[in-house]
Amino acid sequence: MLLLIQYMLIFASVLLLVALGGCFAEHSGVINIGLEGIMVAGALGGALMMKYLPADSSAAAVVCLSILAAMLCGIIYSLLLAVSAINFKADQTLVGTAMNLLAVAAATVFVKAINTAENPNNVSATIQYVNAKKAFLVNIGGFEFNWFMLLAVILLICANVLLYRTKFGLRLMACGEHPQAADSVGINVYKMRYAGVMLSGLLGGIGGLVYITAGVSEWKFENGVAGFGFLALAVMIFGQWKPTRIALAALLFGLFRSLSNVYTGFPFLANLNLPSNVYNMLPYIISLIVLALTSKRSAAPKAEGIPYDKGSR
Amino acid sequence: MDTKKRTPFFRIPAVQTLIASLLCILLGLIVGYIALLLINPTGAWGAITSIVKNFWNYPNLNQQLRYLGNTLVKTAPLLMCSLSVLFAYKVGLFNIGAAGQYVAGAGAALYCALSLHLPWYVCMIAAAVAGALLGCISGLLKAYRNVNEVISCIMLNWIGLYTVNSILSSVKDPTSPYTLGLANTNPGAIMPSLGINKLFTNNRYTTLAIPLAILIAVLVWLVLSKTRLGYELKATGMNKNAAKYAGMREKYNIILTMGIAGALAGLGAAMFYLSGYEQWSVTQSSVPAMGFNGIAAAFLGGLHPIGTIFSSFFIQQITDGGGYVDMTMYSSDISDFISSLIIYLCGFVLFFRQFMNSRLNRRDELKLKGGDR
């Protein structure tokens, strides 16, 4: 049971962070399908930081620096979306999809190159960070507390305040609802959209780092993040683009995702004798059902996905 | 001077699309080359040329033809996937689920072939139906529940993958994670070659699938541009409400489109797995790249069915060509890197065409002013 809660909380943290990222981008008016790619970019940054930090660096330094690296990589990678979608009015779905594929391919090529350079016989796409990973964990009576759980809660509060209690957040949301109106009162829509996408890069990057440290084993970069970016989008839609509701949705999805890791520990689940594939499918099936039930009356920002053109009426 | 009003060469949409696509390829290759240079400067040029050359890496003609055949075996399913993406995109839907529909098709085709011992044409129909069903789910969700098709498709990709893995576990080889070989279990399920293999130095994987895929591409073009159905579907894609107002069944059209797109991708899977070229691994934990490469091919081909024939071949050419890079320095994933870069660059095509047109307009204006003087 403790294990279930532990997995649930860590997966929920991933989904919460990434979904909040998606939430900022969409409130500014840009659909961020590329969250999955941003997660990979952030994960790569964080993993490399963990790998190259000296082995004797303190736990606090490992935690802070790798989060910083993940954030930076996420932001830089999200600029690919920002430039094409905001300045060049590209199809946001197409660019997002390309970013997802690009991130996995680029990370694989890059990591394999590093590994082969160190040892010509090593053609795997994994980064060794087992020891550095321990810095994130604190054992409390059998429960592995992960610093990321705390970080997720803090960022949730920040996101809520930023979005609803500051001038910036309200302006950001105006750009997603009615950019022409926002522009007419002197808000720079392009700048606000850049801010929205970069915030989503920041949060998505951290989310990616959390994802790779959540698993027990090392992570192969060629596998990407297994649709987590899209699960996060489902969480965001289920949460109706509101941070607090997103948090609740993330907990629910985290529960279903963690079942595939721990179902053997529950006698009544193990007795059902379902193949493990069923548990692997569960989060995706649930999200389809949830989407079918909630998408009809969606509170999506009105202008999302539509490139802003100053000259258009 | 001729009095007939002719469109200037650079204003023809097809020419603009071709230039844009070639630019995408060129830029993609250049960035790929830079990446190779960063990894290891000594072998970069050799690596990028061997990616582009693919089967030309072999010295004699017979080998070249045989390996060209192998590339074509994989081009056929890729072409089908890109047609699937293209068909949906013409109706305003982004079918990222081609990958999952491809998986469903593979599952249905192999199950019918290996477990039920059915002949190849039945297996193909089963694959098309399976793909269509998966596509229809996304279509239904989109039409009636307003679920974004991109997200539902991604979810269905994973659901499809795990389901197919479970189903095909019943026909897997006991000693390996792969499904049983078609040639030993049910030779009747292998697509007939009709003498096509003679063209490729008796490459036994080259089958009817290759001309069939090209035929279907032409068919898709005809349906989209010359029939009432195609017109209605495109009208629905442009403006759902206007289509409804004009008396078209817009919900039905959306579902039908996703069904057809799914059937195309499913057929593609049958074309590949019924050639016996490769077996399905029931332990695979990621969706095959074929469907995603289909997105690249569809956009690189300028979203035209005939264009995709060539772009599919190019994408498959560099994907296979990745296998010829010097493995002690680089990984074959560099070709995935290049093709995903190309998809990204395709996002700029619209901007590029606008830019070109505005330049042409300005030039014409200047010319007119000059004429007045």
Observed structural traits:
heterodimer; A: 313 residues; mainly alpha; two-stranded antiparallel sheet; 13 helices; 2 strands; B: 373 residues; 2 domains; 16 helices; 70% helix
Description:
The complex is a heterodimer of chains A (313) and B (373). Chain A has 313 residues and is mostly helical. Chain A has a domain at 8-226. Helix content of chain A is 71%, strand content 3%. Chain A contains 13 helices and two strands, in the order αααααββαααααααα. The mean pLDDT of chain A is 84. Chain B is mainly α and 373 residues long. Chain B has two domains: 11-51 and 299-361, no CATH class; 72-288, no CATH class. Helices cover 70% and strands 0% of the residues of chain B. Chain B is built from 16 helices and no strands. In chain B, helix 1 (13-39) runs antiparallel to helix 15 (334-346), helix 5 packs antiparallel against helix 6 (149-168) and helix 10 (228-238) packs across helix 12 (250-273). At the A-B interface, helix 4, helix 10 and helix 13 of A face helix 6, helix 13 and helix 15 of B.
